[in-house]
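lol forgot to send this yesterday, sorry. C-alpha cells for the thing we talked abt
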C-alpha cells in the first residue's frame, strides 16, 4: 500500500502481533494495483474478456466497494484505475465508461467481470480501511483486549486505552501544516479515517470530472465502526463537499470532522 503502519498491543501478545502483521501483508499484496502478479492485477488484465474467479477476501472487498459506490452515488468508486496512469486515454472516453455499474460481481459463483475494457479496479480509497478491519479481527480472535492500529493514518482501536479514563485520543493533522495537530478526537471504538489535501488530495479523483477533487474542503475525517466504511466515506465526502454530503452523512450516521479550504 506504499504507506507506514504501526500496531501497538498492550499485554503479552506476541503471537497475536505476528498473526496480525501476517494478515496485513497477505491482504496488501493481494490488493496491490502495481504488482503485476497480484490478484488485483490478474483481475484487471482479464476480467473484460471473461468472468474471473476471485478469492474470498477479494470478493468481500469488491462487494463492499460496490455497495459503498452505490450508497455514495458514485462519489467513491473502485473503477478509476486508468485515471491514475499516464495511459493517454481521453478523459471523456474514460468518463463514459468507468462507472462502478460496469463492474459485475457474482457473489454466488464468486466471479467478477467488466463490461468494457476501460475498467481497472483500484482500491486506494478503501483497502487500508478494509485491511484495518481484518487486523482488528485477528487481534480480537487472539484475545487482545487493548490495542491501537495505525495504517497510513487510519486509526482503529480495541478496548480501552491505558490512560486512567480509558479513552483513546487521536490527533487530526492540520491540512496546511504537515506534522502539526489541528484538533484531537476522543475515539471510544471503531475506526477514524481522513482524506485531505495534505496527504493525497491531489490524487483523489472526482469520478464526475476525472480531475482532482475540488469541493472546497481541505480535510475530511470520518469515524465509523467499519474501517472500510470510514475510508470510503471520507473520500466521497471530500469529493462532493460539505453541503452535498448532508444526505449521505445523515443516511450513514457516521461522525464527521470537516475543515474547509482557506
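and heres what i got for the seq, position by position
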Amino acid at each position: 500500500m506504499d504507506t507506514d503502519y504501526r500496531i501497538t498491543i498492550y499485554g503479552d501478545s506476541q503471537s497475536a502481533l505476528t498473526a496480525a502483521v501476517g494478515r496485513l501483508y497477505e491482504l496488501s499484496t493481494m490488493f496491490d494495483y502495481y504488482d503485476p502478479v497480484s490478484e488485483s492485477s490478474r483481475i484487471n488484465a482479464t476480467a473484460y474478456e471473461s468472468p474471473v474467479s476471485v478469492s474470498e477476501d477479494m470478493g468481500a472487498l469488491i462487494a463492499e466497494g460496490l455497495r459503498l459506490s452505490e450508497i455514495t452515488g458514485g462519489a467513491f468508486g473502485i473503477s478509476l484505475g486508468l485515471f491514475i496512469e499516464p495511459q493517454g486515454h481521453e478523459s471523456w472516453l474514460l468518463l463514459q465508461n468507468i462507472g462502478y455499474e460496469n463492474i459485475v460481481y457474482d457473489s454466488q459463483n464468486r466471479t467478477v467481470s467488466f463490461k468494457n475494457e476501460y475498467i481497472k479496479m483500484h482500491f486506494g480509497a478503501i483497502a487500508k480501511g478494509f485491511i484495518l478491519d481484518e487486523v482488528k479481527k485477528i487481534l480480537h480472535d487472539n484475545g487482545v483486549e487493548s490495542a491501537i492500529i495505525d495504517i497510513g493514518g487510519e486509526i482503529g482501536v480495541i478496548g480501552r486505552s491505558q490512560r486512567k479514563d480509558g479513552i483513546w485520543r487521536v490527533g487530526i493533522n492540520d491540512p496546511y501544516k504537515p506534522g502539526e495537530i489541528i484538533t484531537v478526537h476522543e475515539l471510544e471504538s471503531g475506526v477514524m479515517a481522513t482524506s485531505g489535501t495534505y496527504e493525497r488530495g491531489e490524487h483523489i479523483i472526482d469520478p464526475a470530472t476525472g480531475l482532482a477533487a475540488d469541493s472546497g474542503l481541505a480535510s475530511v475525517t470520518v469515524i465509523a465502526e467499519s474501517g472500510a466504511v470510514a475510508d470510503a466515506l471520507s473520500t466521497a465526502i471530500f469529493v462532493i463537499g460539505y453541503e452535498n454530503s448532508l444526505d449521505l452523512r445523515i443516511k450513514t450516521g457516521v461522525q464527521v470532522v470537516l475543515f474547509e479550504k482557506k
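The two ends are 30 Å apart (CA to CA). anyway ping me if u want another try
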